[in-house]
Amino acid sequence: MTDPLSFALSVTWRDGLEIGIVALVFYRLLAFVEGRRALQVLGGVVVLLTVYGLANWLRLTMIRELLGLLFTYGVFALLIIFQPELRAALAHIGQVPVTKLLRREESLGSREDEIADAVERLSRSGVGAIIAIEREVSLDEYLESGSSLEARLTTDLLATIFTPYSPLHDGAVIVRGHQIVGAGCILPLSQGSVSSRSMGTRHRAALGLAEETDALVIVVSEETATISVAEGGELRSGLTPMQIRDLVLGNPVRVSERLGDRTGEWRMPKGTG
Ligand SMILES: Nc1ncnc2c1ncn2[C@@H]1O[C@H](COP(=O)(O)OP(=O)(O)OP(=O)(O)O)[C@@H](O)[C@H]1O
Prior knowledge:
Elements: H1 4-10, H2 13-33, H3 37-57, H4 61-81, H5 83-94, H6 97-103, H7 111-124, E1 129-133, H8 140-143, E2 147-152, H9 155-162, E3 172-176, E4 179-185, H10 201-212, E5 216-220, E6 227-231, E7 234-237, H11 241-249, E8 257-258
Parallel strand pairs: 1-3
Antiparallel strand pairs: 1-5, 2-4, 3-4, 5-6, 6-7, 7-8
Bound molecules: adenosine-5'-triphosphate (ATP).
Domain DAC: 83-241
GO molecular function, one term: diadenylate cyclase activity
Function: Catalyzes the condensation of 2 ATP molecules into cyclic di-AMP (c-di-AMP), a second messenger used to regulate differing processes in different bacteria.
């Protein structure tokens, strides 16, 4: 048996590098699934693995065999269930920093001000809107459902797009950097269990995108003029344009009313429906 000293001396820089890389991959993986439904399923898998380990240890052969079968076929089921998350994760990996640098816009205006002003204007005039701001995970697949644009992001343009009867007012606007790259886009509806039958599709779509990607999704309610934000699988309501500005900048914001939570249960802002 090797003693601890000779073991420590046998550790090379390659071992350190490998441990570092594996730790980083696990950390990024956990950070990615945090707040998504994958985390809940991961919890279920851990419970089943524990039961399997116990059954193995206690030699409960029938339970062990049954769980073995479940794991064999469960892999295929998980691949189908988590197809959107896997796609998002692969897209995330594919976005190497070089392509990100190339994408940075040449002129850096204050997009947070343009968006906050637009949200304020839309809310004041009771015009419904949904604005998805792309972050690390590409929103290209959702652009396909709407109209592609290459327009500089301005308050006026955002307000114009969502004006009722405008051809592009239905659906979401997608913002990438300082550009509006899509309008009239259809977002995935949240899979969360429905606790309010009056829940509207606009808020459900915002939460759906926030469950599948790391996008910041801003919603202005047509019915209540409430400003909400879906982010990291959570929907928060009752925000001010100033708070929207901070969130676009990436600053944390304290919000009193949380409508959605990480269990997938959520309800609509008071007074809707
Ligand atoms: N999947 C979707 N992706 C993007 N936008 C959507 C989607 N589904 C609905 N919408 C938008 O939401 C509008 C319908 O909103 P609805 O009244 O059902 O939702 P809501 O959450 O109650 O919002 P509001 O409070 O503004 O009424 C549609 O006209 C469309 O513009």
